[in-house]
Every structure is written in structure tokens, then in C-alpha cells.
Amino acid sequence: MRGTITATGILLAVVAGYALSCAIRPYRDCWCCDGRGHHRSKRKSKLSRPCRWCRASGKRLRVGRRLWNRARRLHRDAGVAR
Ligand SMILES: [Zn+2]
Questions:
Q1: From ligand 1's centre to the CA of 28, what distance in Å?
Q2: What are phi and psi of 15, to 5 degrees?
Q3: What is the mean pLDDT of residues 23-30?
Q4: With bands split at pLDDT 50, 70 and 90, how would you rate the model's confidence at 47?
Q5: How confident is the model at residue 33 (pLDDT cuts 50, 70, 90)?
Q6: Nearest to 65 by CA among 15, 23, 13, 7
Q7: How does pLDDT run across 50-82, given as a tens digit for each residue?
Q8: CA of 40 to the centre of ligand 1 (A)
Q9: 39 CA distance to ligand 1 middle (Å)
Q10: What is the DSSP letter of 18?
Q11: How far is the CA of 51 from the centre of ligand 1 (A)?
């Protein structure tokens, strides 16, 4: 029983920490282009194409923040319908 309470506490602390970090820094570098926004071509020419994952911004919204935005939108839409 005590182990269950401890595990729950640790899980809650981790979730709260992740939520806080998502609130402070909602964006992270794009995994596909490493935050550059463009891909270097494989051949050594100077041509580079924009990254389609981050739409050439180099930043991606984190998963936690995306869930938070979706929940807020759902909550807002539910409030309007009433
Ligand atoms: Zn990218």
C-alpha cells in the first residue's frame, strides 16, 4: 500500500514537472531538421529545401502543450455551445 502511494506521488510529481516545463517552454527544436528549418541536400550543392515538419520555422510544439491546447479548445467550444 505504501509503495502504491509513493509510486503515485512520484508519477504526479513527474507529470506536474512536465506540465510546468511545457508551460515555460512550449516549443522545442524540430527533430527532423535540428531546429534549422531547412534540410541540406545530400549532394554538396548549396540548395536546401524547407522542412515540412516544422514548416521551415525550426520549432515544434511539444506534445504536452499540444494536448493542453486541445483540452482548452474543447473546454471553450463546450462553453460556447451552452
Ligand atoms: Zn524541421
A1: 10
A2: -65, -45
A3: 94
A4: confident
A5: very high
A6: 23
A7: 999 999 999 999 999 999 999 999 999 998 655
A8: 11
A9: 8
A10: H
A11: 5
CA–CA distance, 26 with 15 (Å, rounded to integer) = 15
Domain that holds residue 67: 2-81
Interval between CA 35 and ligand 1 midpoint (Å)? 6
Query: Structural domain tally of the chain?
Result: 1
0.90 surpassed by pTM? no
Q: How far is the CA of 54 from the centre of ligand 1 (A)?
A: 4
Decide: helix, strand or coil at residue 72.
helix
> Which has more pLDDT, 71 or 47?
71
CA of 62 to the centre of ligand 1 (A): 13
